[in-house]
Inverse folding.
């Protein structure tokens, strides 16, 4: 396969997945990682892709990819994270689940729990947990987003202010020393309302969320209690989490 053909395959892969590891691309094309690095060098120069920390992404990857794509990205890691989170939740708890691919896996992992009171603004999560044994599922009303079937707006915010929550689980778009970030302004006020009414705030994200840059500041690190992820965060973020008093759990 020629270099130009490989470059086309590289573009196709990252358009589909959003972000790809160089090792992953090399394996799929049966060439060395060094060959892929040579292939992407002119692509980076032309602004077609961005290379960072052994990965390749699209220049516009600051935008969150569609929900169905996010459900496929890093699936194994998200399942491990979801399993770890589910083990922290006891039968009978009142739990809020934020819309997101990782929290959808948390919902699936909670299906063997019973007597949960589930609060969410995600139609997907509601559908997953409504048939659980003795579970009560309350879904916020409001405008449904077409991407992930999540309800947003003033009605959803007023809904959450009715409850007190034992555990809130968030799938945030990006985590950095500056705080929790996302891609939609509509998330900010809703997430803050949930955090104010929650005894314990868990942020469940895979390692790719340490590399992304959100555009909306949701909250400071101090507003969460626990970060559950699949690999050690970058050193700067580890230090910031420790200073903020946030515990980190690496799911295995």
């Amino acid at each position: 396969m020629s270099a130009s053909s490989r470059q086309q395959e590289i573009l196709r892969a990252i358009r589909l997945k959003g972000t790809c590891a160089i090792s992953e691309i090399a394996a799929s094309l049966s060439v060395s990682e060094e060959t892929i690095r040579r292939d992407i060098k002119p692509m980076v120069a032309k602004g077609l892709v961005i290379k960072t920390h052994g990965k390749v992404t699209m220049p516009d990857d600051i935008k969150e990819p569609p929900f169905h794509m996010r459900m496929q990205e890093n699936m194994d890691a998200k399942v491990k994270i979801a399993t770890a989170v589910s083990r922290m939740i006891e039968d009978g708890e009142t739990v809020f689940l934020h819309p997101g691919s990782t929290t959808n896996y948390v919902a699936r992992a909670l299906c063997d729990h019973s007597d949960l009171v589930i609060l969410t603004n995600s139609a997907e999560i509601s559908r997953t947990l409504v048939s659980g044994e003795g579970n009560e599922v309350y879904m916020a009303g409001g405008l449904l987003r077409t991407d992930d079937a999540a309800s947003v707006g003033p009605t959803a915010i007023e809904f959450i202010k009715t409850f007190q929550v034992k555990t809130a689980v968030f799938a945030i778009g990006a985590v950095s020393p500056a705080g929790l970030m996302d891609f939609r302004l509509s998330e900010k006020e809703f997430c803050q309302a949930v955090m104010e009414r929650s005894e314990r705030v868990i942020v469940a994200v895979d390692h790719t969320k340490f590399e992304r840059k959100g555009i909306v500041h949701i909250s400071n690190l101090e507003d969460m209690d626990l970060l559950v992820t699949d690999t050690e965060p970058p050193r700067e973020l580890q230090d910031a989490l420790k200073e903020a008093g946030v515990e980190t759990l690496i799911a295995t």
Remarks:
- The CA atoms of residues 115 and 134 lie 4 Å apart.
- The radius of gyration is 19 Å.
- The chain has a mean pLDDT of 88.
- Residues 3-17 form the longest helix (15 residues).
